[in-house]
Amino acid sequence: MPFELNRFDVMEHLWETIEKTPDGHHIRYTELDIDQLWWMGFVDTENVSLEEWIALFQPLRQPDGTYLLNKDDFLSLDRYRYKGEIRIPFDPMQINEGKYTDEGLDQLVDASIAPSCRLSREEVRKFVDSLKKDFRQPDGLILIKTPAKQRVKALLDDNPSPLRNLEILMDQMIAARGADAHAMIEEAEVGAAAMEAARQASRFTAKPVSRTEQKAMGLKALEKARHAKVADEVEGAPKTELKKIRRSRKGMRG
């Protein structure tokens, strides 16, 4: 059974659980936090574009580039929150193998592939046209087996939609909680955990989900390389100096 986030009044609960500034009356977001909340499915992305979401925070921008929210500011975000169903993530490798008509494959795309992909409908259509061309058989049908499914998997792995990111997040959370999953949902921890995890997405994905995260990961990589260079220099220093030196799924969505 899919989860429905509109079953929970999570914002008050979230406010109580999110870390506050020293005055106890505000929370501080970075540009990356705001970007991640959209890309990880906290926002109703069908009705609120990323640009519109970012613009909402601009009146709260501080001189240091962060965003300071009081309780009213935070609770007002509820109107933009995604409150629909969260299904089991679509697994391309579980697509039923066999020959598909054009109409049958299009139905699969519309029901499962397109909602799971952040690319535009036009870009998805180009992908599907290429898939049909490469796997069409002499009888005119499209043969879907492991090679075709792997191509779909690569598409979704590289271009997950915000909703898919949220579905994967929730699936991993429930797997981790096991028997406690029902209690987690009833306590509305699902909303709190989803929002906090959206801000810390790098904990469960090695790939950046947005341009902002990609930039942040790039800066982190440069910093890591700089420290590695320093470490190499220390390694090559005289030893007398070293003495001083002391981290079963279905083929259709849901």
Care to describe what's here?
The chain has 254 residues and is mostly helical. The protein has two domains: 3-87 and 162-207, no CATH class; 92-158, no CATH class. It is built from twelve helices and six strands. It has helices at 11-17, 31-39, 50-57, 71-75, 102-113, 121-135, 146-158, 162-177, 181-186, 189-199, 211-235, 239-242, and strands spanning 3-4, 27-29, 67-69, 85-86, 98-100, 142-144. The strands form three sheets. Strands 1-4 form a two-stranded antiparallel sheet. α2 (31-39) runs antiparallel to α3 (50-57) and α8 packs across α10. The longest helix has 25 residues, at 211-235. The N and C termini lie close together (8 Å). The model is unreliable at 186-190, 199-222 and 229-254 (pLDDT under 50).
- Uncertain runs are 186-190, 199-222, 229-254
Q: Percentage of helical residues?
A: 40-55%
Number of strands: 6
Backbone structural class: mainly alpha
Number of helical elements: 12
Radius of gyration: 23 Å
Write down the overall geometry: elongated
Estimated share of beta-strand residues: 5-15%
The overall number of domains is 2
Main sheet attributes: strand count, strand direction, barrel closure: 2 strands, antiparallel
**What is the CA–CA distance across the termini?**
8 Å
Question: Overall pLDDT, averaged?
Answer: 77
- Give the neighbour order of strands across the main sheet: 1-4
Question: What is the ordering of alpha helices and beta strands?
Answer: EHEHHEHEEHHEHHHHHH
